[in-house]
Amino acid sequence: MAETNSYPSYYHEPEVVKESIFKGSEALQKAPEITGVPTGIEGLDDLFFTLKEEKGKLKQVPLGGIPKYSVFNLTGVNDTGKSLMVEQFAVEQARKGEKVAFITVETPANFVISSIKYRALAMGYKFEDFEDNIILIDAASHSKLRENIPDLLATLAYAIKEFKINYTVIDSVTGLFENKEMMARAIVRRVYNFLKKWYQTAILISQKRSGHEELSSEAAGGYAVGHIVDGTMVVAKELIASQYAARMYKAKLGDLVRLFRIDGCRMSGHDTKTHFMEITETGLVRILGPLGE
Length: 293
Fold this sequence. Notes:
By secondary structure, the protein is an alpha/beta fold. The chain has helices spanning 24-30, 82-95, 109-122, 143-147, 149-163, 184-197, 224-228, 243-249; strands spanning 36-37, 48-54, 57-62, 66-67, 71-76, 100-104, 134-138, 167-171, 201-207, 231-239, 256-265, 269-270, 275-279, 285-290.
């Protein structure tokens, strides 16, 4: 009597993928050296550090910026300074001669570049000297890029090769899974793996829902972004509406207090305190001292 196959048609025998196996020393040979990338945001670059051994003791050494090749999540509710921060980051890299891919998902490219130009002016730079170092990819005006991740990544890969880009900003990654938050984790994972493959140092903005806790890493799509990326920076704002809050924040009733915290970074050490944050009259973000000092 002939044997019958009880496995479903899509079943296949488990396969060993030997190419995925590395000894630690082999992986280290391919590991990039981690240095700091200055962000152009006053007070932020001092909050990251690495460790070095000197005379048998470990010593903290400032990194001078976010870790190179890291993919960061920057999250907060509306009007907390997220877009200002990535624009400062893009200006800082561009004025040093680096190429930056700025993927705009929310606002058409011509409006974004106008805002970036103003940010450069506020930072004291002549934008015309480096304006073409910023390569805009307009996913806000081209729904094909916003709705189709393979098309977006193929376009970004083309730009990276064409312009030799090492830095990428996405404002915002939340816009890539609007109305389909069930797919947020898969989309963010795909974007993250792409950015790592191309050795990009990147900042992805993700939007918070109004019901989310202000200073948590949770954002639209749940914890999808924070769980996948290399680190998360959280920005928040609080209206001082009680004497208790006024005393805690050393502010006055009616003031608006802005806060910043690094919620995690797997590629380097970092300050874990919650810091005051300021948006200046000219629209620049500054990270100030920690609460309680």
